[in-house]
């Protein structure tokens, strides 16, 4: 969620035009294990659940060359997990078939898998963003807009707090667990649909979450 919030942050909306944000996608780094590069989190009936894309580990681990491992039926399990978690959400059925069509193309490379899903999510959330792959690796810096290693499932992330986006939106299982922040942007999309951009841009309050 934090990454998409940053994309929306620099997108400018006005009555007569939309000015897209621009983000550089790190295409030249060494693949980072246990990161959001191959996983995301959703809220299911038994709590927060991780969805993971298995990869083939080999000598070449440049991020743009990592291959997806389709030797197990993880894609079917992922789709079933999404069905179970979001079947009763307000907008899941509206987006489900298009999302599954993107997933079922089964791109060979993790880079292409991620890029196809990002483009799908940009379109459905209404975020206008130019995606620009890097052509060389620059080591991590202290620049304020270098978030390559800031947004990580194993580290605290203050991005949503800094953007004023710690406020809840409706979640299917919030009556059991309370509001769970910083899940996959899929969670926001399935629950809030076309209002997702309003939440990301803080344009108006959404329907209240269950406590």
Structure description:
The chain has 211 residues and is an alpha+beta fold. It has one domain (2-197). 34% of the residues lie in helices and 15% in strands. It is built from eight helices and eight strands, in the order αβββββββαααβαααα. The protein has helices at residues 2-9, 74-86, 92-103, 110-125, 159-162, 174-177, 185-192, 196-201; strands at residues 12-14, 17-19, 21-25, 39-44, 47-52, 55-56, 67-68, 129-133. The strands form four sheets. It has a two-stranded antiparallel sheet. Strands 3-8 form a two-stranded parallel sheet. It has a two-stranded antiparallel sheet with strand order 4-5. A hairpin with a 2-residue loop joins strand 1 and strand 2 (17-19). Helix 3 packs antiparallel against helix 4 (110-125). The longest helix has 16 residues, at 110-125. It is globular. It starts with a helix and ends in a 10-residue tail after the last helix. The mean pLDDT is 92.
Judged by helices, strands and strand pairing, the structural class is alpha+beta
Binned, the helix content reads 25-40%
Distance between the termini: 21 Å
Main sheet? 2 strands, antiparallel
How much strand?
15-25%
Instruction: Based on Cα principal axes, name the global outline.
Output: globular
Structure annotation, total helices? 8
Q: Please state how the strands of the largest beta sheet are arranged side by side.
A: 1-2
Order of helices and strands: HEEEEEEEHHHEHHHH
Q: Report the radius of gyration as a whole number of Å.
A: 17 Å
- When the domains are counted, the total is 1
Beta-strand segment tally: 8
* Low-pLDDT windows of residues: none
